[in-house]
Design a protein that fits this description.
Layout: E1 6-8, H1 10-13, E2 21-23, H2 25-43, H3 45-77, H4 103-118, H5 122-149, H6 155-185, H7 189-202, H8 208-220
Antiparallel strand pairs: 1-2
Helix pairs in contact: 4-5, 5-6, 6-7, 7-8
Length: 244
């Protein structure tokens, strides 16, 4: 039995409006089955369009969250060529400001003492200056001992250690002079006099610090003869034995 042809217009097949096409009943049934979900989807277009902005916001939020979560790991794995190399001196414990036997530690104590003097906290200043004097004194003598050990063996080491002994000895004498001034401000000349004499012994009397120390002794009445028109010199300190 022959299948009866069925005429479908372009409204069914989406083709030319003026050109009808033939389709079997089976094809019509299949087209109807396919058209049902398409119609359902089209009927929901309004709802889909209304939800689309929220879907984009969700996706953007998800992407931003992933970028934030991954970025630190990526930065940690990527070396920064602009980051300067660490200073080798920073890895040496005796070059740290909190070391009890370092130039930086002594200088930090002197700065703290000056701040205490400005705040009229003389007892705190005395304690800080005494600590600084001990550190500088130990450093000066240790460097001097090393210089003597390398004398005639290694000129470079000898010169380096001798210069370090001179530098730390100068800092010790400056801290000692400052401490004497604090004792004088506390009206304790009996404590200031021996400190000033130590400075004169360590420095040459014609040096600037030696002359200033002698002038303090004269002003306090410990000596009665003023120094006669001295001319300050940059004489080398004597590097006396360890001071107490």
């Amino acid at each position: 039995m022959a299948t009866k042809p069925v005429y479908l217009t372009s409204r069914k097949l989406g083709s030319d409006r003026n050109c009808p096409k033939k389709a079997t009943i089976g094809q019509v049934s299949m087209l109807e089955k396919i058209a049902v979900p398409i119609r359902n989807i089209k009927s929901r277009n309004f709802m889909v369009k209304r939800k689309q902005p929220y879907s984009l916001i969700y996706l953007l939020t998800l992407v931003i969250g992933l970028v934030i979560a991954i970025a630190p790991d990526g930065q940690a794995q990527t070396p920064d060529s602009n980051t300067p190399a660490s200073d080798p001196n920073e890895l040496k414990p005796l070059n740290q400001a909190d070391s009890v036997l370092s130039l930086q530690g002594g200088q930090r104590l002197v700065e703290e003492a000056n701040a205490a003097i400005n705040a009229a906290k003389y007892d705190v200043a005395v304690d800080k200056l005494n600590q600084a004097r001990r550190i500088f004194n130990q450093l000066s003598n240790y460097h001097l001992q090393l210089a003597n050990s390398f004398s005639g063996i290694d000129p470079k080491v000898f010169d380096s250690q001798r210069q370090s002994a001179l530098n730390t000895g100068q800092l010790r004498d400056e801290a000692t002079y400052q401490l004497a001034l604090v004792h004088r401000a506390q009206n304790q000349p009996e404590l200031a006099v021996p400190l000033l004499i130590q400075v004169i012994q360590s420095q040459n009397p014609t040096s600037e610090l030696g002359q200033k120390s002698y002038q303090q002794l004269y002003e306090m009445g410990f000596v009665s003869t003023p120094i006669s028109a001295p001319t300050p010199t940059s004489a080398t300190p004597n590097n006396s034995p360890p001071q107490q």
